[in-house]
Write a structure and sequence with these properties.
The protein is of the alpha/beta class. The model has no long low-confidence stretch (mean pLDDT 95).
Length: 328
């Protein structure tokens, strides 16, 4: 099988690229990180250093491909709308055009459950639940990107999408690697009552979901599927485990959600005044994510795709911590 993978130098795209290559697929990897592309090339994969905003390059990249996995995105709770729009909407549109022009058999798209986020606890969220107003430029542009996908499906392109929640595991650069330095500083308080639950998803389980999407039956096309480990955990209990294994003092001091949210609001206003608009050390989104409960209903993925998480959160955290300790 010939496959093109965008975002191949990212966490998920890289894991998918290596899995497919190991399975004997003919893989072409697209990314912007030259060093990581070089590593993939040294492992025997074909690589292209393309910008998804380059329409002609993306059209050419899709030629002779059977399936395209569109994993690339600009994911951040903070940043300029135009940058998100170009990466997430225009980039997706160019991938779609390439698939249509070269009659790619299927486009598998990686969306996000950030679409469900609304500064409050939400549990067992279904794909069909009403979406709140987007609270970030990332969420807003991913909604627009999904609309591009819907329009392509209506035109006849075979599409399918997943919304994977909070990816973690060896190679993670976002969730735990951003949390651990704050724990090491000793300045991270417990936000909220400390009892909130969240869904996480081990990286290889998400790769499994993408492979299922590549060969799923016709009745799944045009749909989006929630993906998680399906085993919500108390986030602050997990923080305690991380601290214990890394010999760190766990947070003890509690700050109410309203107090932390007020502080984040002030910081966001101040950082907006800085010409370069850097991300504040505390944002309303990050406060809400650490203080509220967020879980997904993955029954559709289980029933229609045959998705079954193989690596538990407990096992996955252990694998991540072993990887982290080897490198730090």
């Amino acid at each position: 099988m010939k496959a093109l993978i965008t975002g191949a130098t990212g966490f998920l795209g890289g894991a998918l690229t290596r899995r497919l290559h190991g399975m004997g697929w003919d893989v072409t990897a697209i990314g912007r990180n030259a060093a990581k592309l070089g590593q993939l090339e040294s492992e025997g994969m074909r690589v292209l250093q393309h910008d998804l905003k380059d329409k002609s390059a993306m059209l050419a990249a899709c030629k002779n491909q059977e399936i395209v996995f569109h994993c690339a995105a600009l994911p951040s709770p903070w940043g300029n709308f135009e940058a998100f729009y170009q990466a997430n909407v225009i980039g997706t549109r160019n991938v779609i055009r390439g698939c249509e022009e070269h009659k790619v058999k299927r486009l598998v798209y990686v969306s996000t459950p950030s679409l469900y986020f609304g500064y409050s606890s939400r549990v067992n969220v279904k794909e069909t639940d009403a979406l709140p107003e987007p609270v970030s430029n990332y969420a807003a542009t991913k909604i627009l990107a999904e609309q591009e996908l819907d329009e392509a499906f209506a035109r006849g392109l075979a599409t399918i999408a997943i919304r994977p929640r909070a990816l973690f595991g060896p190679g993670d650069t976002v969730i735990f690697p951003r949390l651990i330095p704050r724990l090491q500083s000793g300045r991270l308080p417990i936000l909220g009552d400390g009892e909130n639950i969240v869904d996480l998803t081990y990286i290889e389980n998400v790769v499994d979901a993408l492979l299922l999407c590549a060969e799923s039956p016709a009745n799944t096309l045009g749909k989006k599927y929630n993906i998680s480990n399906g085993e919500p955990v108390k986030i602050w209990k997990l923080v305690e485990r991380i601290c214990a294994e890394l010999n760190l003092q766990p947070p003890k001091r509690k700050i109410s959600y309203s107090t932390a949210n007020a502080a984040a609001t002030v910081l966001e206003a101040l950082y907006t005044l800085i010409p370069t608009h850097p991300e504040p050390p505390l944002t309303r989104i990050s406060v809400s994510m650490m203080a509220h409960s967020t879980t997904l209903d993955i029954s559709a993925a289980r029933n229609e795709l045959g998705y079954q998480p193989k690596v538990s959160v407990d096992e996955g955290v252990g694998l991540f911590l072993n990887w982290w300790k080897e490198r730090n």
